[in-house]
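Protein modeling request. Please complete all fields; requests missing the sequence field cannot be processed.
Requester role: graduate student
Desired output: 3D structure, token encoding
Chains: 1
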Amino acid sequence: MSKKDKAKQDGSGKLKAKKYEKQLRKLQAELCHLQEWVKHQGLRVIVIFEGRDGAGKGGTIRAITERVSPRVFRVVALPAPSDREKTQMYIQRYMQHFPAAGEIVIFDRSWYNRAGVEHVMGFCSQEQHRHFLELCPIVERFITNAGIKLVKFWLEVSDKEQRRRFEARITDPLRQWKLSPMDLPSRSKWFEYSRARDQMLKATDTRWAPWHILKSDDKKRARLNCIAHLLKVIPYKKVPREKIKLPKRSMKGAYDDQSALRGRKFVPEKF
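Delivered output (271 residues):
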């Protein structure tokens, strides 16, 4: 069997843009139905995205959120903690962003920073790391017992693909903004991150808050697979909606509203 035929059979061949857009549109339509159900039922959902730098978290989150309401799907991407936040209980700065009824909060990195970058780069002590892994499952049990649905995704990118993406960030001016101060140091600590990942999964992959591993070397497939799985793990139904009829424009008080704009400054139409 040729490489091309094998790729077609196991799904590893390149996904054509037209097919990707078609499948993405279908899934995004279902996300809109999920959105209505979450609002209708007053559900509270937290979705966590973790993974190595360059794993594709941002693009996957954009695929989820680009067709839904930001008032329902809220994305939280916290910066490094301030001096004040460093003195708080570790999870405290995340809890203030937890969902109210009818909301889905997506964490682009979360409290699991302590299990990953903080541990590998030496931003926390060994004792703090051990303490986090010990307490995290207990805290997440309290979260889920409070009625919040907690979904955790780990995006798994290969060594080869991460290197390719970092090199693209270095050479492409449209991607250079993606290079963070942690990217290059994290690249040199591949196996340290692997061990940290393994420790994290062993300690926090629980029945009430399991990890879902998402292969992300192929960004398009990863986005489709992620959305499809998210729709599966959050049961929902289509909410009946009344038919909408566009009202006719009232002519009461009619006037030439376009002539009133004459002499105003317009944006030049260059395109």
